[in-house]
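Progress note, project year one: complex with coenzyme A.
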Amino acid sequence: MRNERERHEGIIDVPPERYSECLAVLRSGFATEVADFGITRENTPSNPAFWSDSAVAAVVDRGFELFAVEQDGRIVGCAFAGPSKSRPGVWSLRHLAVDPTTRHAGHGAALVIEGARRARAGGAAVLTIGIVAENTRLSDWYRRLGFESIDKTAYPGLVFTVERLQLALAST
Ligand SMILES: CC(C)(COP(=O)(O)OP(=O)(O)OC[C@H]1O[C@@H](n2cnc3c(N)ncnc32)[C@H](O)[C@@H]1OP(=O)(O)O)[C@@H](O)C(=O)NCCC(=O)NCCS
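Model obtained:
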């Protein structure tokens, strides 16, 4: 991954009055993933495809930064990043979604780069992400962006396996 220090063009901090725009992107963005991997509101209510109106603010309240890609005044992708409560030097990137109508234009990669930039600025040595392991297309994409797989875990009750990946952040 490019070792960028500068914020990518089009990346914004999301103010509370625009959380509903992000929620719409998260719901439609994750809808494609749940359809492909047997994820339902019943078996995985925590998936962003099923988030309630207050869910975005709840993640921010837990200490995560919310940032987005804006195109022609419209939010087309967003993600959260923040420090691990239990692991010093580790930040996690969460709930990355790009509107299905604006994919393959590099917005997803721009959001990953922005998450890495924020983690580095926050003093982190690594950025982690947890994904549906069966989504090998997604896993391959993260690898192309410089992530490496740490482990895969099958949790009781989950219909998919969780793969954790991490990106080493340059210190200089
Ligand atoms: C993963 C995701 C954010 C990529 O967004 P994007 O703006 O299309 O990303 P980029 O343009 O930088 O890269 C596109 C690449 O993403 C990869 N990709 C991974 N999952 C994908 C998906 N469900 N649909 C399309 N592309 C996907 C492909 O390799 C694609 O390459 P291609 O354009 O050559 O086909 C977007 O597909 C998405 O929102 N997926 C659903 C939610 C999700 O799985 N989020 C990540 C888990 S935290």
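The radius of gyration is 15 Å.
Strands lie at 11-13, 65-71, 74-83, 90-98, 126-132, 148-153, 162-168.
No further modelling is planned for this target in the current period.
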